Amino acid sequence: MSPSSVSNWLTMDTAFFGGFFVLAVIALIMNLRARNTDHQRQSVSNANFLTFQRSFFFVYFLALIGDWLQGPYVYKLYEYYGFRESQIAVLYVAGFGSSVVFGTATGPLADMIGRKKMAIVFCISYTICCLTKLSPNYWMLMFGRILGGISTSMLFSTFESWYVHEHTERYGFPAEWIGVTFSTTTFWNGFLAITAGVIANFTAEGLGYGPVAPFVVAVFPLVICGFVVARTWPENYGNRTHRLAASCMDGFKTILNDRKILYLGGVQTMVESCMYIFVFLWTPVLNPAHPPLGMVFACFMVAIMIGSSLYNLLLAKGYKAEEVLRLCLVIISLSMGVCSFTGGPKVSLSYTFVTYLAFLVLEVGIGIYFPAISYCKSQVIPESHRANVMNWFRVPMNVITCATLLCLHIPWISEDKRIVFVACFGLALSGVILATRFIATFQESKSNLIVDESKQSLIENGD
Fold first, then answer.
1. DSSP state, 233?
2. Secondary structure letter of residue 235 according to DSSP
3. Rounded-to-integer distance, Cα 115 and Cα 121, Å
4. Could you report the per-residue pLDDT of 343-354, keeping only the tens digit for each?
5. Is the CA virtual torsion 367, 372, 374, 377 positive or negative?
6. Which of 82, 174, 360, 409 has the most other CB atoms within 10 Å of its CB?
């Protein structure tokens, strides 16, 4: 290595490590400011809400850390077992494909048999998924990926559906506090991801147990999560009157028959497609700069934490959740637009660093997105089909992600990732349009509801 290359490496390394501390300080300051907003102060002063919220956090955070522990070493484990890149790609596609094919059934099942029971099923299936990683057999790993895809569908629908029902139906807390809960969840999710990454690295590298170790460790929080759910959670349900196939189709019809839900599902598809495509792209795009990948990942998570605090600050400034949702899509569009120019092959270190900064901006947008979309879904998706509809939202996202992953095996696309970034830019711009339409229909429906309530009040007073 020449002196100039050593100097460049030290400069980039310093930038990544120094950037982490700068971002961490920003995240801390913004979180402290977000805690002083009206919504936060009102919810924090309610002892019953805090008790309920903490009981949910304890369970959900166990599930999340069980999920995060697996993330850093999935690809490396398959490499460790000697599989080729094309074989590994098929395993990844199997995971997303199973979420499309089987994951849509987990929503109506949760509504029919109970969200508590489905949360326990999640813990069992994800535990089995982790244990399959102990085998070097390709088909056993394939079975594990299929289970993992189904489990992920349950993780991102069942727990949220259970919480929203308890929040609104059992306890009757204000709907605005749902955004507070999921903003806090997003903030601490970043911290959990960093912690899980450190634990995974320590067990795999520090203790020398190899890439299978994090999957063994992930079993423990998943088992504890299932045990706590079984012992402490009350059961709640959605629509229990239909058979499984009919219930699945009811959720699909609900989306098609309500423009608000249709537009919101489109927004989710656009954002999460960009997010999952980014998960595949960031490592090969930044690799020419030889960054410390663990530190880069930590910076991404801190950026998400900043976004979650920014969400609360924007609400305190008078922005509505649906408007903040559109703002996050504008942010993602800007990020992908920059990467469409700077994310090409054989670029200079300065271009690579600009791409890295654009990735950080993307993660801030993702941090804003999760609490915003959670609140909007709680307002427009009917309780009877909540988990069902939420899983249907994930179908087009999984299809787009699978198609993109397969396209990356086309040489001219694989060599120049800017093509994929342009596609993501198009997705994000489409999301801005859909978010704008969602705002119009959502506000129109709220205005109509206010008018109807006023008429009803006049009639009752007249009587």
1. P
2. P
3. 10
4. 888 878 888 889
5. negative
6. 360
d(CA 236, CA 116): 7
Q: How far is CA 234 from CA 145, 194, 229, 287, in A?
A: 30, 31, 8, 48
Tens digit of each residue's pLDDT (9 = 90 or more) over 124-133: 999 999 999 9
Q: At residue 64, does pLDDT exceed 90? A: yes
- Residue 432 — pLDDT band, cuts 50, 70, 90? very high
- Average pLDDT for 240-254: 69
Residue 167 and residue 182 in contact, taking contact as beta carbons nearer than 8 Å: no
Nearest to 117 by CA among 243, 223, 235: 235
The Cα-based distances of 135 to 83, 190, 306, 427, 448 in angstroms read 13, 30, 39, 38, 58
Q: Count CA within 13 A, CB hemisphere, residue 75.
A: 9
- pLDDT of amino acid 100: 73
Contact between residue 302 and residue 20 where contact means Cβ atoms under 8 Å apart: yes
What is d(CA 348, CA 450) in angstroms, rounded to the nearest whole number? Answer: 57
Q: What is the pLDDT of residue 246?
A: 64
Residue 405, SS3 per DSSP:
helix
pLDDT value of residue 1? 45
SS percent in the chain: helix, strand, coil, step 5: 85, 0, 15
